[in-house]
Amino acid sequence: MPSIGIRTMHKINTLYGVLTALLAVAFFQYSFSFPSEQRGLDPRVYPRFISICFFALSVGLIITGIKAWRREKEERGKQKETTSGVQGGSQEPFLTPAKKRIGSMFLVALGYVAVIDTVGYLLATLPFLAGSMVLFGERRVWRILMVSTVSTAILFWLFRVIFRVPLPVSSLW
Amino acid sequence: MQAAIEGVLYVLNHFPFLFIGVAGGILVGALPGLSGSTGIILLLPFLLYVEPAEALIMMSGMFCGSMYGGSISAILISTPGTPSAAATVLDGYPLAKQGKAGKALAVSTIASTAGGIISTLCLILLAPQLAKLALKFGPPEYFALMIFGLTIMASVSTSSLLKGLLSGFFGLMLAMVGLDPILGTPRFTFGITRFLTGFPMVPVLIGLFAFSEVFAQLEVLGKKAIPHVEKVRSSLPTLKELKGLINVILGSSILGTIIGIIPATGGAIASFMAYNEARRFSKHPETFGTGELAGIAAPEAANNGTTGGAMIPMLTLGIPGDVVTAVMLGALLLIGVRPGPLLFSQTPHIIHALFAGFMMAQFLILALGLITIPLFPKVLKVPVGILYPIVLALCFLGAYSYGNSVYDMGLSIIFGLIGYFMKKHGFSAAPTILGLILGPMAEQELGRALILSHGDWTVLFKSPIALLFYALACLSVWYSIRGIRKAKAKG
Questions:
Q1: Which of A66-70, A153-157, B438-442, B450-454 is modeled with the greatest confidence?
Q2: Which of A45, B233, B367, B477 lies 20 to 30 Å from B153 when distance is taken between CA atoms?
Q3: ipTM, two decimals
Q4: CB B423 to CB A61 under 8 A?
Q5: Does residue A88 have a pLDDT over 60?
Q6: Cβ separation of A132 and B425 shorter than 8 Å?
Q7: CA angle (B364, B365, B366) in 5-degree steps
Q8: Residue A37 has pLDDT above 80, yes or no
Q9: CA-to-CA dists, residue A81 to A86, A91, B184, angstroms
Q10: Rounded Cα gap, residues B403 and B194, in angstroms
């Protein structure tokens, strides 16, 4: 997987820290709704312990992220003073082809899950496989048609006929 | 003896399962991007419909096969198929560039088989003894054991201990969603009825390990251009060469087995340690890195040596030794097999079949490895445009088959995206799985211990066995911190 710039990583760490800290707070808050039990383990104890640890770790990530970010900023400031006029590397566009591919794959997969109950396994899987192949760079139409048709048929036969898995069938007809 | 014969006969009667496991394992191990854990996840849709013993045989074959398969791409394209084969690149690829890829692959096959056989023997001899000891454990000992198991989260963390622990605690948080294991009251459902059953293991496993990998592959699509060894001729090492490798193979196999038994270590550590030791004891250490046969034999014998070793704590105590056994533990729980001492006393036929399957898997690796050497370059040429869409379709089937639910398919894709971002930003998914598997067990054992002691918390620290596990847990955390600091110091 391509490496991320150190600056971006510090920001991302801080962002992850904030998100996970919020999750920990939400879980801790929710634990107040649990019943109290005197015998054995109180149902609130374990969830609260885990939430507190999760929160502490999140805060740790935020602190290290901010610290590293500041250090980086100071170093860049010093570098700017010594090499004034020299510009840094060009900025990468937000929507890179890789991000577009991943986003499209996610949407195609979500679409597949959304329609499979309505159109059935066979009719949903065939275009899903074809679409995935296109996203993975396959351009030869005959190969896309052949692989998606044959693999859908094999998987359907294996799971529906051999393993007797009740794969979704179309509710349209 | 009779049990061993019954085990062998069982495996022979169910040979296709072993064959699918081993051949599939070699394939996923050889393909960079797929690993043993992904292989086991791809087996999930099938495992749900076979007998527990057959499932175990298949998974064992997949585990051993993938460990060996990693060396194929390490030798042919200088890219280890699995992290455990990283040390094999050092001498395997230089030898392939000299036109001796066939010999390098043959040495890797022989060393892997030897490592696997020695570790299987240790598994057969040690596991039943440890299981007998574990029968004496009560809830306090089990709770301490789970705490020790959870400290593995720190060890399987990649570069940052903080991120590894955060990933692990994320798994523990996820595991709390659903019903309280003792009182049965709903918790952390946030009003969503679907959350009452918690997050099912299958979609989470598939998402975090398989879908995330598919997304990661989409990111690097078209970027790799590695010099590829196009043709490989079968070429066995001479008897003289093999004689020179015997000590290296034996020593590395034993080292690998010992490292495998220690939870949270695994093949990557074992192979580098064995490589270093082989170089240290070599009469010509300067030849290492230039295509030395011992430089291939040592890491391969060691990483396959870890397979049997890693199964010992997993089968007897329910503590996974590495990432693959963690996924395997999850898969076993799904098919209704709960690893632990009771598995040995209540269902010995499953254990005997597993032992026989593990041993026969090694010979199958030897046969398949040596026969199919000329085919390996073709395997590595499987177009990603065909491979990953089929992986996706299988993953979706796996997610669906578990509960015949489209909701699980959706959940797997959501966790796939979470797993992808975790991987991209330095958070490992392995600690999350450990937290998800071991968290509820730890909570249950803690609850049981406190009910039996009428709420007396000191019961957790009264047993010497429990204290030993706490000490091991501290040692494990210290070892992980030291390892990460060392790695950082090296840059």
A1: A153-157
A2: A45
A3: 0.88
A4: no
A5: no
A6: no
A7: 90
A8: no
A9: 10, 21, 64
A10: 13
pLDDT in tens, B447-461: 889 888 888 889 999
DSSP H helical segments within B31-160, as ranges? 36-47, 52-77, 86-97, 101-134, 139-150, 152-155
Q: How far apart are CA B141 and CA B468, in angstroms?
A: 9
SS3 content of chain B, % helix, strand, coil (to 5): 75, 0, 20
* Rounded distance between C-alpha atoms, residue B294 and residue B468, angstroms: 38
Chain A residues 16-55 within an 8 A CB cutoff of chain B:
16, 20, 23-24, 27, 30-31, 34-35, 37-41, 43, 46-47, 50-51, 53-54
The nearest CA of chain B is from the CA of A4 a distance in Å of 8
Contact of B35 with B66, CB cutoff 8 Å? yes
Helix axis angle for B86-97 and B101-134, nearest 10°, is 160
The DSSP output letter for B33 is: T
Computed from CA positions of residues B310, B313, B318, B320, in that sequence, does the dihedral angle turn out positive or negative? negative
Fill in the amino acid letter for A172: L
Residue A84 scores a pLDDT above 70: no
Q: Look up residue B69 and give its amino acid.
A: G
Output the CA–CA distances (angstroms, integers) from residue B455 to A31, B144, B181, B375, B451, in the order listed. 20, 17, 17, 63, 6
- To which residue do tokens 């499953």 refer? B350
Structure tokens at B475: 């040692």
| pLDDT of res. A129 | 96
